[in-house]
Design a protein that fits this description.
Order of helices and strands: HHEHEHEHEHHEEHHEEEEHEH
Number of strands: 11
Helix content: 40-55%
Bound molecules: glyceraldehyde-3-phosphate
Strand content: 15-25%
Number of helices: 11
Length: about 260
């Protein structure tokens, strides 16, 4: 039985706010590990939240993953006078096409009736290619848009789950295990204390860019992600966590 049936979701939200030290928390019922519709509920909560904070001509940078894909699937128009622009936060980081930030921004903009730009960069990228590609005018232009985004929308993954899904080389996976990596966001891997233990070299938004963003919106749920969420929020910049009941309850049990 869910604790929140007794406590109520608002109580749960307030306790998570205190525990993770985050300004805003939205908790939807259920466990997205078990039911796809719960991810869509988080998506709907995210779209409603965006409608509250968005301003005309806003640029929204978005990461990849199934949670962001769910947000895209329930996106609706913002009804603003001026269009919003969706950009991928980072280059492809080894995900399947439907989970790539490029694909997700294209779908989000179609559903929101906005515009989008894509970022074509291979991953992982060698240092020499990286140095060349960031000189390309078309890449520079998209990077400018990303770094000056008004809103960042991102997911959090369980570190080893993400490493596996991205077909990360064996040596690197071993390194992640040795360094006790717990969470992943933006291509960065963090340990339980929130320290960066590895960073995927790809073009796009870097962790330090988050400091200057007006709004950072984090969407992550499922009981299996509780530890990952706790880890990200140890140091992670975010104005709001949109999560589900099962993750929220597990976070409270852990602390
Ligand atoms: O960076 C975080 C991951 O992309 C989250 O992926 O939403 O499929 O769990 P997920």
């Amino acid at each position: 039985q869910f604790m929140s049936e007794i406590m109520g979701l608002t109580v749960l939200e307030n306790r998570i706010k205190e525990t993770l030290q985050v300004e805003n928390v939205i908790v939807v019922p259920g466990n997205s590990d078990d039911a796809e519709w719960v991810k869509q509920e988080m998506g709907k909560a995210c779209v409603s939240y965006l409608k509250k904070i968005i301003s005309p001509n806003a640029t929204i940078a978005v990461t990849g993953g199934t949670t962001m894909a769910s947000v895209a699937s329930v996106m609706t128009p913002f009804e603003l006078e001026n269009n919003c622009l969706f950009v991928p936060a980072r280059g492809g980081i080894g995900e399947k096409m439907e989970n790539q930030a490029n694909t997700i921004v294209a779908q989000m903009s179609r559903k929101a009736q906005g515009d989008y730009r894509l970022l074509y960069v291979p991953d992982p990228i060698s240092d020499s290619s990286y140095q060349n590609i960031i000189q390309e005018p078309s890449i520079i232009e998209v990077l400018q848009l990303i770094k000056n985004a008004d809103i960042v929308l991102h997911g959090i993954g369980d570190a080893l789950t993400m490493a596996e899904r991205r077909k990360t080389p064996h040596e690197l996976r071993e390194k992640l295990v040795e360094e006790n990596a717990v969470s992943e966001a933006f291509g960065y891997y963090f340990d339980q204390q929130g320290n960066v233990v590895h960073k995927v070299r790809t073009v796009g938004l870097q962790l330090e860019d988050l400091e200057s963003m007006k709004h950072v919106v984090t969407v992550a749920g499922g009981k299996s992600k509780a530890k990952a969420i706790e880890s990200y929020f140890k140091h992670g910049t975010s104005n709001v966590l949109i999560t589900d009941e099962a993750a929220a309850e597990q976070i409270l049990r852990d602390t």
